[in-house]
């Protein structure tokens, strides 16, 4: 019988011993610009392939769109359980370089911080996954199941050519998955709200501006009335399903005790959030506008569906007597989660405590991610990765080196617990 605790400790010690190699790998990934857009993952995919080939682990390349390459590699026993470790190579654009205090593609380590675009989202986590995957082979660890590394090129612009593409084409499957997306050190995300993005177009009747409001019909002023109704979505009383209430409560506890600056955001876990993102209307100040378009980002809690939101909007907007149309676009998902008791959640959460001797528990996120795609295919999933959360997608992105090392240790130990569990 395998002593799994001893095996986990052996792997953790090996990560510690080779931590400089891990940090060098992370730095190298950051030094390769992989901004999306444009979304060309050729250079970084080749680098990862060359790294893994050192250990006879050559990944398959799957081009989902022009120069967007998904990499897949598996190690272990195909007859056992399969654990997917997933990460994305793309990063958001660096933006105005004059607003950075350092080269966003330097990958430098300064005062214990790894610096650069993607440091937190999510090249540090990606480096941890790749490093641990290679380490298993280097140490000739005989796994009773299979560890699959799935590296995707397209998450930051919606992910159409990444995780969902792999799942739709039956290129990956598993009993559980871990995405190395940024999280807090002791609190992986095991659930997320749904997304409901829509564009409202309000129609008016053009006329000379000097005759408004008597002449014509102003699409912009009608759109303003519509926006007031749309914002009332926040005030809807939604019944949270009983099975979800413990997750909501522990997530609110997290906001109170861990990320205390987010205390005021506790209500978003039970409410429909409404962001009026863009407004476009009219052609000239002296012409009564014929059209006004409004794009809205709503995030849906557990307890309400897309159809129910659509029905509410129809009733509310019809009551105004305006002419309008609505079309859905962008992210579309219902609130979704993985049980805290699922083996993949237990493997990560328990090993955060094993590595750090600190209480750990899973929480909800109020946004969306690739995790929803795994759940659509009945693959339990959670997210855990190194991050300095305030710097994500901003200037001067960074992550603490010690966080990169800690997460890699958790990744290594979790493989053992998950694959050895019957």
TrEMBL record:
**Recorded metabolic or biological pathway in which this protein acts:** Amino-acid biosynthesis; L-lysine biosynthesis via DAP pathway; LL-2,6-diaminopimelate from (S)-tetrahydrodipicolinate (succinylase route): step 3/3
NCBIfam families with a match to the protein in the record? DapE-ArgE (TIGR01910)
Q: Which organism is it from?
A: Sporosarcina psychrophila
Similarity comment: family membership: Belongs to the peptidase M20A family.
| Enzymatic reactions | N-succinyl-(2S,6S)-2,6-diaminopimelate + H2O = (2S,6S)-2,6-diaminopimelate + succinate
Q: Supply the alphabetized keyword list.
A: Cobalt, Hydrolase, Metal-binding, Zinc
**What is the protein's given name?**
Probable succinyl-diaminopimelate desuccinylase
Q: Which superkingdom does the taxonomy of this entry point to?
A: Bacteria
- Main enzyme class: hydrolase
Q: Where are the transmembrane segments?
A: none
Q: What is its EC number?
A: 3.5.1.18
């Amino acid at each position: 019988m395998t002593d799994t605790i001893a095996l986990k400790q052996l792997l953790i010690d090996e990560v510690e011993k080779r931590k400089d190699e891990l940090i060098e790998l992370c730095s190298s990934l950051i030094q390769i610009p992989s901004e999306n857009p444009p979304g060309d993952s050729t250079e970084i995919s080749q680098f990862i392939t060359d790294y893994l080939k050192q250990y006879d682990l050559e990944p398959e390349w799957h081009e989902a769109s022009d120069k967007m390459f998904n990499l897949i590699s598996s190690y272990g026993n195909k007859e056992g359980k399969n654990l997917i470790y997933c990460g994305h190579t793309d990063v958001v654009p660096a933006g105005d370089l004059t607003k950075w205090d350092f080269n966003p593609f330097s990958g430098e380590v300064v005062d214990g911080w790894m610096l650069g675009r993607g440091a937190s989202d999510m090249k540090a986590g990606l480096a941890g996954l790749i490093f641990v995957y290679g380490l298993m082979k280097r140490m000739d660890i005989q796994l009773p199941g299979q560890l699959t590394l799935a590296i995707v090129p397209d998450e930051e612009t919606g992910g159409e050519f990444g995780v969902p593409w792999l799942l739709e084409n039956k290129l990956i499957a598993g009993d559980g998955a871990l995405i190395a997306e940024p999280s807090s050190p002791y609190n992986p995300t095991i659930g997320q709200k749904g997304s409901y993005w829509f564009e409202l177009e309000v129609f008016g009747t053009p006329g000379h501006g000097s005759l408004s409001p008597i002449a014509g019909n102003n699409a912009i002023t009608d759109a303003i009335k519509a926006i007031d109704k749309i914002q009332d979505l926040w005030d809807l009383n939604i019944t949270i399903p009983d099975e979800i209430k413990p997750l909501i409560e522990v997530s609110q506890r997290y906001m109170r005790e861990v990320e205390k600056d987010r205390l005021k955001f506790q209500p978003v876990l039970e409410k429909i959030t409404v962001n009026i993102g863009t407004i476009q209307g009219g052609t000239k100040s002296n012409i009564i506008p014929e059209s006004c378009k409004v794009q809205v980002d709503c995030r849906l809690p557990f307890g309400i569906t897309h159809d129910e939101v659509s029905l509410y909007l129809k009733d509310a907007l019809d009551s105004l007597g305006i002419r309008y149309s609505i079309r859905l676009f962008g992210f579309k998902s219902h609130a979704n989660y993985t049980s805290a008791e699922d083996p993949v959640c237990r493997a990560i959460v328990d090993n955060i405590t094993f590595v750090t001797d600190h209480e750990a528990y899973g929480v909800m996120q109020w946004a969306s991610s690739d995790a929803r795609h795994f759940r659509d295919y009945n693959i339990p999933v959670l997210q855990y990765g190194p991050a300095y959360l305030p710097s994500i997608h901003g200037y001067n992105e960074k992550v603490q080196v010690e966080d990169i090392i800690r997460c890699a240790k958790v990744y290594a130990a979790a493989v053992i617990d998950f694959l050895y569990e019957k």
